[in-house]
Amino acid sequence: MTTTPQKATDEQPSVGDAAERPRLTPAQRLHLDVYGFVLLENVLTQHEIARIKDALYRLKAEPDLAARGVYVNSRSAHFLSIGHLVEYDQALLDYAAHPALVPLVEELVGGRVRLEESEAIINRRDPEAPDEPGPASGSRNRVQPLGFHTGARHGWGTYSADHHFHCLFVKTLAYLTDVGPDDGGTAVIPGSHRLGWPEQDIIDAAREDDRLIHQVEASAGSVLLFAESLVHSSTAVRGDRERAVMICGYTPPMMRVWPGNEPSPEFVASLPEHQRPLLGGGDSWPWGR
């Protein structure tokens, strides 16, 4: 299921007082509560997509990413996964602090947030991968998850308040290219965000019946909002198109960033005052909710 907010324009929206802040629609909130994710369509403009892609492809061409303050999770001819991006280019910071997204993240977390990580993936089909056999008889899809995982677990990383589900670690994943069934879209196990089962038991059970696994398809400019207690995975690219995504993680401000994503004090000090808490976090446990 996808839900569509007001279509984006080439002017980035501004966030004013609480009455003007974007909010999840009832349908979007229900989708998050029930399934643990929701696809927000037409969030980014073509101009925003182009700026983000330009920055990421410049990073891809960099011979020494560490010299740019960027860490590498994986780098090969067909797969690049990198992180700590917001200090590299204004376009990447603008996405992390996007005024159409941060308020929705805060609804799912349940209060004010800090940026916990910023990462990106650019990948295409592995030329060394063997040809994939056709789908099994009776199979409804051909999803090939590369590694199911979570970043939080139901119980210690989630809670309920005001009749809604909340997670202390939430991500937005921006699709910078169209992603169809053969283009490596994110796979999720809907509803797993609220299960106390051992993670591997959830994965094993879902693999027995692929109707329990959903692969997201999206147009460029759409954003997947999801709880990190949701079991999810990248999938294999089987087509000829290259996939590019940018991912930002958010937590309450008193929690630590993912190792390697610590912002430099000089960078935080250079930001407009209203952005400093998002990047710098806070040391106090009283939480603005």
UniProtKB/TrEMBL annotation:
Q: Which UniProt keywords apply?
A: Dioxygenase, Oxidoreductase
Q: What's one Pfam family here? A: PhyH
Q: Give the residue ranges for region: Disordered.
A: 1-22, 121-143
Which InterPro entries would you find in this protein's record?
Answer: Phytyl_CoA_dOase-like
Q: Does the keyword Amino-acid biosynthesis apply?
A: no
State the superkingdom.
Bacteria
Q: Which GO terms describe its molecular function?
A: 2-oxoglutarate-dependent dioxygenase activity; iron ion binding
Is Repeat one of the keywords? no
Q: Would you tell me the protein name for this molecule? A: Phytanoyl-CoA dioxygenase (PhyH)
Source species of the chain: Actinopolymorpha cephalotaxi
